[in-house]
Amino acid sequence: MRRQLLLAASVVGLVAGCAHHDRKADYAVFTKPLLSPGAQFGALPPAVQNTVIAEAGAEVIWDVVKDSSHGQTVYIITFENRDIYPPLYVARDGSVLNPDLTVAVKSPEQTAVAQGLSAAGNVKLMELPPKVLDVIHVQASRTDISTIDKATWGNRTVYIITFKEESHFPKLYVEADGTLLKDVK
Questions:
Q1: What does the H/E/C string look like for 86-107?
Q2: Which domains, from first to last, does the chain contain?
């Protein structure tokens, strides 16, 4: 029995050694990772994604190239319809660049940061977190809301609520967790 087991193990080892096949030769043509334009777009920083959507909408992306050779990171996005959409040069902060890498259009975030906050635009009442709605209800339930803006101050999300009767109801600055900020100027 022991002898048969030893013989069987030897045969299995011999067969396994002979069955070796060099698979490298079959795949030598694949030298780069295969990426879809959607995967490339998804890997872009959020500010760059926002700029691409703002500038080109739903236009089909052909390729995305990240270039750092000029001392700054620049994303070059080429589109399928090159006649209508020339290559879009975008800085890491979302600014649109000219082909010579000068700033053509500053990013909204960069403009807002210069003012000490980062704006994300108007927000609808139904999009507010429940705790922010509670603060609005307690502070100003008897008046109409004029605008609601969402901003980022450092690492805090702040909702700025402006009322139609500003003389009686000053702006509210409310953090996403429902904290009412006082003495904001």
A1: CCEEEECCCCEECCCCCEEECC
A2: 37-105 (no CATH), 116-181 (3.10.450)
Q: Helix (H, G, I), strand (E, B), or coil: what is residue 72?
A: coil
Report the predicted TM-score, pTM, of the whole model to 2 decimal places. Answer: 0.45
Per 3-state DSSP, the chain is made up of helix, strand and coil in percentages (nearest 5) of 30, 25, 40
The pLDDT tens digits along the chain (185 residues) read 667 666 666 666 655 555 555 555 555 566 666 667 778 888 888 888 888 888 888 888 999 999 988 888 999 999 998 888 899 999 988 889 999 989 888 876 554 444 444 444 578 777 888 898 888 888 877 778 888 888 888 888 899 888 888 888 888 899 999 999 886 65
